[in-house]
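Person: I keep going back and forth on a fold encoding question. Show me how you would write down a chain together with its backbone fold. Please set it down just below, with no commentary around it:
Helper:
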Amino acid sequence: MNRISGRRLQARRLKVWSKNPHCAGCGKLVEFNDISGRGFQLDHIKALKADGGTGEDIESNTQVLCCGPGSCHAKKTAKDMGYKQRQAIDLDGWPVEP
């Protein structure tokens, strides 16, 4: 199954965002754009079958996630891909507690 794109994707983004314009991860209110740190990414809750997951490219399998470095979308993508996040180190050289 191919992902939707173009006008169909933009219509779905607007519909999902209109129902709830808050990030599903952190609850932050996000703008309807994809500007890093202000907008959102339309995320598949379950990865698509084409990507090795079990999800489908349907509206009920999508959610709003904030975007940008350190955002909920970046964290979920890293987790889905099996990446581990680096431990943050403070200026004194000690790990920063999450």
